[in-house]
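Bit of a strange request maybe. I'm writing a small parser for structure token strings and I need a real example to test against, not something I typed by hand. Could someone generate the tokens for this chain?
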Amino acid sequence: MTIRSTMLAAAALVALGTAAPAPLSAEEITLKVWTRADRSGPLRGGNIITAAEQLNRMLAAAGSDLQVKIDLFENNAKGFDADALDLMKAFAVDKGPDLYVAAHEWIGAFVEAGYALNLEDHIKANPEFYSDMIPSLWKSVEYKGARYGIPQDTEVRMFFYDKEMLRKIGKSEEFIEGLPGMVERGEFTIYDMTDLAKEVVDAGVAKYGIVHRPNVGPDFQMLMASFGFDPYDEEKGKLQASAKALNAFYDWLKYSVDAGVIPANMTSWSWDSVHASFRTERTAFIKFHGIWNVPAQMKARGLKGPEDYFRAIGWTHSPAAEKGGKPANLSHPIIYVVSPKSKYPELAAYLIGLASQPYLNTLHAVSTGHLPIKYSQLGMPEFVNEGWALRAAAPMLKYTTFMPNHAKVGQFNAIIYKGIQAVETGRLDPKEATSFVLDELESELGDEVILLD
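Reply from user aminoacidic:
Good idea to test on real output. This should exercise your parser:
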């Protein structure tokens, strides 16, 4: 009997409550799992172990002596990029795992190297695992039109805005609570957001209109998306940069700095200063960052629950640059991947399906501040009672974007950030910054980037 038929028999027997027949086999299969030792996701590997335990109970109920053992390796790499490079080295010397955890943007590199299995057939054959996956998340595991991974978790990065400041400048509750809807309908642009922030600053209610991360990172992609900047050619699997869209983004940055909304020295701030400006000191009207900020915001402001929180703080996507445009936010999913070099790729994929069930994924998500990956998780008690902020943010995934599934996206982001620094400090005007960045992209990334316009 094949492994798949044994698993199906086990599942059927458990579902029907049928008495187990005589043992079918006596065998132990060991699967190697690679994950990063990460406090933000201890159950990424742990849920695979739990899934194996569940499968072993199903196999025992089917009368099989077959057991699956997990050999879990937790790499101590400082970040997902370093971890991916370590994983590449392991595969290169035939010491790669059967399945592994990775940041989604590395999937293209793993596919090209022959280390990621096409999971289209597996996904279609197991709708009980994947039919209620939030559809937008599938984009994060696609490479050249096919899915090579399963989303393990996600988050959302958006604009946080201080509602109390809007009340102090006389804005109505209808306006304050309706702002996210206006953004979603394309009625309120990113220039309108700057003008609103200027009202707050000019009234003396805030010292800073908008604050952002003070270093290189993916957060700026959602703002660039507001100007039609698409950093990835999916068909060719290459990075791309539009001169027109990049110039428009830098134009907005200059407009916001000149208006006294974004500090000219923003890129020299410390992270502590950025967080304090919105949390404790409350000198900033808007901060754009991630959903995981909510607990710290509540603690700093003494907020007791969802009603308190949403009375004080609102969320919105990055607004479109023009009326009628589409807003955007950013997500950074971590994913499961199966190695095509595994002796048991079907079994590895099946374990990922089990680990992706609503109960197990919810244990991970609620305990680490991540959004659900499936609609069915939204009604689970843990999300309703403990993960209310995550549950509230899930609908925002409709407008989410992802970093390109390209190994050099970090370098790409670093070059664009040089332009952000240059514009905000006044060292270069938007046109000069655009020209500089495009030259740098071409010089450093060569054939890996397509320059448009």
